[in-house]
Amino acid sequence: MFDRPEPRPTPAELIRGLAVFAEPPTDEHSRIAEALGLESVPSSSEYSDLFLFQLYPYASVHLGPEGMMGGEARERVAGFWKALGYQPPAEPDHLAALLGLYATLAEAADGDRSEEAEAQRRLIRESRAALLYEHVSPWVFALLHRVGELAPRVYAEWAKLLEGVLKEEVSTARPNDRADTGAGAGQAVALPLHLRVAPELPDPRERGAADFVAGLLAPVRSGFLLTRADVARIASVCDVGLRAGERRYALEHLLAQDPPAVLRALAAEALRQSALHEERREWLGETASFFAKRAGHTASLLEELAVEEAAKEEMAT
Amino acid sequence: MSTDDLNKRVSAARSEVEARGETFYPGASRVHLAAFPPKERWNDWVELDSKSWPERVEKRYMLVPTTCFNCESACGLLAYVDRDTLQVRKFEGNPEHPGSRGRNCAKGPATLNQITDPDRILYPLRRAGARGEGKWERVSWDEALDDIAGRIRACLQEERHDQVMYHVGRPGEAGFTTRMLSAWGVDGHNSHTNVCSSGARAGYHWWMGMDRPSPDHANAKVIVLVSSHLETGHYFNPHAQRIIEGKKKGAKLVVLDTRLSNTATHADHWLSPYPGSEPAIFLAVASWLIRERRYDRDFVRRWWNWHEFMAEVHGEADASFERFEAVLAETYDGYTFEYAASESGIDEATLRAVAETISTAGTRLATHNWRSAGSGNLGGWQVARTLTLLNALLGALATEGGTFPNSWNKFSPRPPRLPHQHPRKWNDVLWPREYPLGLMEMSFLMPHLMKDQDAFVDVYFTRVYNPVWTNPDGFSWIEMLTDERRIGQHIAMTPTWNETAYFADYVLPMGHGSERHDITTYEQYDGQWIGFRQPVLRAARERLGEKVVDTRDVNPGEVWEENEFWIELTWRIDPDGSLGIREHFESLDRPGEKMTVDEYYGWMFENSVPGLPEAAAAEGIGPLEYMRRYGAFEVTSKVGKVYEQAVPDGELEDVRVDETGRVYSRAPVPPSPKAPGGTKIAPDDEGRRRVGVRVDGEIVKGWPTPTGKLEFWSRTLRDWGWPELAIPTYVKSHIHPDNLEPDQIPLISTFRVPVQIHTRSANAKWLDEIAHTNPLWIHPSDAGRLGVEKTGDLVRVETEIGHYVLKAWVTEGIRPGVVACSHHMGRWKPIGHEGQRIGMMTVALANQGSGWGLTRVAGTGPFESSDPDTMRVWWTDVGVHQNLTFPVHPDPVSGMHCWHQAVRVRRAEPGDAYGDVSVDTSKSRAVYEEWLEMTRPAHLHSPDGTRRPFWMLRPVRPERKAYDLPQAEGAGV
User: Fold this and answer.
1) Is A20–B14 a contact, with Cβ atoms under 8 angstroms apart?
2) Shortest CA distance to B174 belongs to which of B680, B675, B757?
3) Which residues in B lie closer than 8 A to residue A101 (C-beta atoms)?
4) How high is the pLDDT of residue A18?
5) B9 — contact with chain A (CB < 8 Å)?
6) Is the same domain home to A117 and A84?
7) pLDDT band at residue A135, thresholds of 50, 70 and 90?
8) What b/e readout covers B319-330, taking b as 16+ CB neighbours within 10 angstroms?
9) Residues A117 and A29 in one domain
10) Nearest C-alpha of chain A: how many angstroms from B755?
């Protein structure tokens, strides 16, 4: 009845151990770090800087149209937990919770090997693949890449390990296992639902600057991740004043000071990240393509706006 | 390093850390139970104080495990003991408890309400006026102990052992009290079981030799529930979570409940049968399984006592199995879906669909009946018997996903200094000859039996029991309790006031679940565990280095705990050891001194719980400290088919196998860490004990029944006068339509609300706020017919002995033609008496001759106390007390009180007021005598001159000789 070969067992324990590092450091981190072969343990301030100020480890931030925690994207993730019969935790879309859930499903799928349990195991495998495809892989690789760029060494090591493990998982999760993608046998797999319903980045010439800036900060709309560090770097590069505050506030002030330069710097960052997405296309497929296109479109729009702003300035002078 | 290697390394690190009892994964990534504090931090757990918000004020706690005492499930609790004040701030679940696994229902956390209740009883009290007058004086424990002990000593010295009685409601413990009564030599154990679960127990007992089911819900393919288990069933929380697990894994859920309970709303098949028709449904399913050959033939051939049935009933000792199958099919061919539909009111197609569903279960059929229909109907014990027939047909007994017998899924450790004596004198009040097969004591008939036998009980303990309120016919209980010719001294052992305590001579305050020691073990899945209830403040102080030997030193006021009380009382009964009782309560290390609670449990954990000493040693502590730290221990899991296990060679000595396959041996009983108990199977004629049965040439353990097989046909029932009921069959209930007058309607009174605790939650403010009333469920079609216009209208419900007045709740959630009113509500205190102010109404009691009345004078309301919340009581209604108006309905076979009532419902009459109760106890006496007529007493039907089959279960079993009827009365002699 089930004649396909057994997939490689998922390293659930490893995933669970790695997941811990997306949580605030505790005493337990040291022995997990030791087991993982990490050189050190992150400090609380390193954790805070990375996950509270730069890169937010929540699916809803990366996949929701608001680019913030909560909202419909989180509800969608919570619904996934419920569909599996779990009570969603307080933060169902936190990376640690999602990886913990993934590990739990992997353990269940690799558990009872009896023929009787095969149907149940197959369902679990499909759920696990769906979790990875729908709620984790669309955002986690971009996040981990940026952790590698921005974070202290211990987190960079961690991100590299986790990226490697999840990349292997993506490669072994077969399309047929992606039960809730709407794809039938032989059909192309549909984009994850978060992406299918994600609105595009609004054009400020039609929708105003406020919506545009909000859209820039929503990765699923803009296609790229704009961190506080990025905003600070752009301020420095463009030699404009950086005002303390949330990213949106700071960005609005940058744009008010030297619109063409800031728009061009933003465009460059979007283009750079578009290329990174493109590199993942080979093994991540349409999901990477989606983000590459969005970031590319954002870069084009920003360039276009920069040209217009520059023209306006020229006319004014 | 490869991913796999790294995975293995993390796994090894986790195993190593967890082996030390510590937590490896700290937070959200654990997924399961992520909210629980890691156990290595239980000694110093920090939380932010919610009441200080938005300030971030840290509170430091010791987390001390104990066991909930608010139902029989014995779920694990963690008390959060404030390290600064040494007071309990809250209770949450104990994730280390194998049964409840960190989860609790509302009743667990409400333990906090009970221990902080401003109305609780804090000191021993002695009545200062006439019994029941409501006048009390505070006395010392010494005075009370000396007085009570003196009376008991006199009873024992004067051979009046049957005048000492211990009447227990919620036992909540395994073995301490029965051990004590055995030491006293008193056949005075009186349980509440015949108003609770005897019906179901009987049905299971006569099949399996064990009297409770332990369904493996989590692994079932089909779950059949006769009751509302997901909200209030026995072992509600441990079972409910596993039922949901089973459902998550695809199990189909079949629920039989006349009401649309919360459980029914989760069912794949909700059957709302006419009450009492449940056995007809199960027999129709069984008949179909047999006709369609959808049963496990090999299991039936190997494990049913079909040989005996064919020989004894059909005179075919040499019948083949195929011949039996033909007879079996013929026996049940009348139970068609059509017949079951006509009895139950459920259409044939639905019943057939249910049968189809059940037939898909294979050996993964988990079924359960405990109270509900089994406790409601004449012949209700056939509910469990016919339900188990389905398991027995499918071979779904003691299988993964099937139903286990309780004894294989629980572990009662052997206590120290176990008494070997048995009471010499039979207690006729508890085990009257009219009910030789009654599963448990005929406790609820006590007022009538005392009259019949002109009996006197000199020392009567009620302990966590409130018969005046709980039992049917409560006014007859008041008559008995106030009659000093019947009750010499009544001692109510209760942490809180109740209706029975008002009629006591002493009220002794015993601790709540977090203020006492007990050991618990219950069948909740295919595994065996023990739980440890402990006074949490004592354990907390001991963690801080104090030595506590008397729990009164840490409990509020002079509240005690029972173990220490009983040890002290026993020493005063037998101060010099001359009665041979004291020795069972002497220190193990220091003979001549009192045994301490630490010694009692410490010895048990060290010597009688396999694996516990090793688990404790792995953490560098002793077994008692381990249990004080974690509160529970799983002895084993995946017990499986005990009946198929081979009898060890060491138990086979000078073996004889009789013609039916029963295997007898001269090998002595091997030592066991378990406390003795269970059925007593007779030895062979040469004194060999039975060790198993031979099945297909193999000697295996079999079942603890007389035949060693599953007893489809019961020789016991046949021999003791009930041949027509010896196989699973259908008995028409006393509320069957054939037995009702045209204007009568069945009343279901047994269902419960999930947030109340029988009669012990009047002082639980959170629970009272959630549920505090019990209206009459009535279907709109009946409401219209009876002139009830709307919800809230007052109606009068007339029973055989009186009536009560309550509000109607017009709802489609009840089957048309049936009304229902929940248990738990209608708590009261007479004017002038103390009592709970939150959960009790104040009433006026009136009595003239056999006429009794109860009138509600005032409901509850806000009041000033040490707890500011009592000023926030916004409700006044506490429900009505319906049980007072129910006569006794003892099932003539099982002895179970058949709770369902045939009533007349009408609009309240002018002058009727909410909560009114009116009863004539002479009528209740007449109903008792009417039901007594149905019995087949031992002195007329005993086949061997005994009072009761010796093999059957019995708490505090008297010596064998005491079973003999007086010589002239034995029918079979």
Assistant:
1) no
2) B675
3) 31
4) 94
5) yes
6) yes
7) very high
8) bebeebbebbee
9) yes
10) 22
Give the position of tokens 């055989």. B800
Number of domains present in the structure of chain A: 2
Q: Are residues B28 and A96, on separate chains, in Cβ contact within 8 Å?
A: yes
Of B482, B469, B465, give the one whose Cα is nearest residue B843: B469
Please tell me whether residues A43 and A122 are part of one structural domain.
Answer: yes
Tell me the shortest Cα–Cα distance from B33 to chain A, in angstroms. Answer: 10
Measured CA angle at B723 (ends B717, B724), to 5 deg: 120
CATH number of A96's domain: 1.10.3480.10
pLDDT of A115 reads 72
A213 inside domain: yes
Q: What is the mean pLDDT of residues B660-680?
A: 95
Cα separation, B811 vs B781, in Å, equals 10
Only one residue has tokens 């449904």, namely B281
Q: Which of A187, A216, A246 is the last residue of a domain?
A: A187
A27 and A83 inside one domain? yes
- Structural domain includes residue A230: yes
Is residue A169 located within the same domain as residue A255? no
Question: What is the distance in angstroms between the Cα of B369 and the nearest Cα belonging to chain A?
Answer: 26
Could you give phi then psi for residue B813, rounded to 5 degrees? -80, 10
Note down the domain range covering A107.
11-187
CB contact under 8 A, B29 and A19: yes
A183 and A284 housed in the same domain: no
B804: left (phi > 0), else alpha (psi -120 to 50), else beta? beta
Residue A5 domain-assigned?
no
Tell me the nearest-neighbour CA distance from A1 into chain B, angstroms: 20
Pair of tokens at residue B21: 């009892």
B249 touches chain A (CB under 8 A): yes
What SS3 state is found at A54? helix
How many CB atoms are located within 10 Å of the residue B4 CB? 12
- B944 alpha carbon, distance to own chain's centre: 31
Pairs of residues, one from chain A and one from chain B, whose beta carbons lie less than 8 Å apart: 92
Report the first-to-last Cα separation within chain A, whole angstroms.
77
User: Would the pLDDT of A182 be above 60?
Assistant: no
B15/A contact by beta carbon, under 8 A: no
Question: What is the complex's ipTM, to 2 decimals?
Answer: 0.82
Helix (H) or strand (E) run with residue B157 in it: helix B141-157
Check CB contact of A103 with chain B, cutoff 8 Å: yes
Of B457, B444, B459, B468, nearest to B835 by C-alpha is B468
- Would residue A224 count as lying in a domain? yes
Same domain, A268 and A299: yes
Where does a domain end: A187, A218, A248? A187
Average pLDDT over residues B858-874: 95
B33 touches chain A (CB under 8 A): no
Q: Which residues of B touch A7 (CB under 8 A)?
A: none
Residue B13: its chain A contacts at CB < 8 A? 31-32, 34-35
B29 touches A: beta carbon within 8 Å: yes
Render pLDDT for B333-352 as a digit per residue (tens, 0 to 9): 999 999 999 999 999 999 99
| A contacts of B10 (beta carbons < 8 Å) | 13-14, 16-17, 32, 35-36
The answer to whether A288 faces chain B, any CB pair under 8 Å, is no
B250 — contact with chain A (CB < 8 Å)? yes
d(CA B290, CA B324): 12
Q: What is the pLDDT of residues B372-390, one digit of tens each?
A: 999 999 999 999 999 999 9
User: Shortest Cα distance from B7 to chain A (angstroms)?
Assistant: 4
Amino acid identity of residue B24, one-letter, is F
Total residue count of chain A as it appears in this document: 317
Question: Do A218 and A70 lie in a common domain?
Answer: no
Which of B6, B23, B24 lies nearest to residue A36, judging by beta carbons? B6
**Phi-psi label, residue B362: left if phi above 0, alpha if psi -120 to 50, beta otherwise:** left
Query: B232 CB contacts (<8 Å, ≥6 apart)?
Result: B751, B752, B753, B754
Q: What's the pTM value of the predicted model, to 2 decimals?
A: 0.79
